[in-house]
Amino acid sequence: MDILKQVAELKEFLGKVYCFIEDNEDAFKDGVEAEGMKNETWKWMQELAKFLPEV
Predict the structure, then answer these.
(1) Over the stretch 10-32, which tens digit does the pLDDT of each residue have?
(2) Distance (Å, rounded) from C-alpha 45 to C-alpha 47?
(3) Residue 55 within a domain
(4) pLDDT at 27
(5) CB under 8 Å, gap of 24 or more: what pairs does 18-22 form?
(6) How high is the mean pLDDT of the chain?
(7) Rounded Cα–Cα distance for residues 28 and 11 (Å)
């Protein structure tokens, strides 16, 4: 499988994880924990985007 395709799929998956965390933020015991996970997920998405061609 093409590496760029894998990077794009990983970025898309992280986007789904980010949305899941955001949609279920109230279910976390500590809202700060959810915010931290969202921030880290966002950072990874931004780093992966650096490897993808701009559309």
Answers:
(1) 999 999 999 999 999 888 877 78
(2) 5
(3) no
(4) 86
(5) 18/42, 18/45
(6) 90
(7) 23
Contact 18, 55 (CB under 8 A): no
Query: pTM for this one?
Result: 0.81
In the predicted structure, residue 55 carries a pLDDT above the cut 70: no
Question: Does residue 11 form part of some domain?
Answer: yes
Cα separation of 40 and 37, whole Å?
5
The total number of structural domains in the chain stands at 1
Q: What percent of the chain has pLDDT over 70?
A: 96
| Nearest-angstrom CA–CA distance, 53 and 34 | 30
Closest CA to 21 of 32, 40, 37, 45: 37
- What is the domain range of residue 18? 3-49
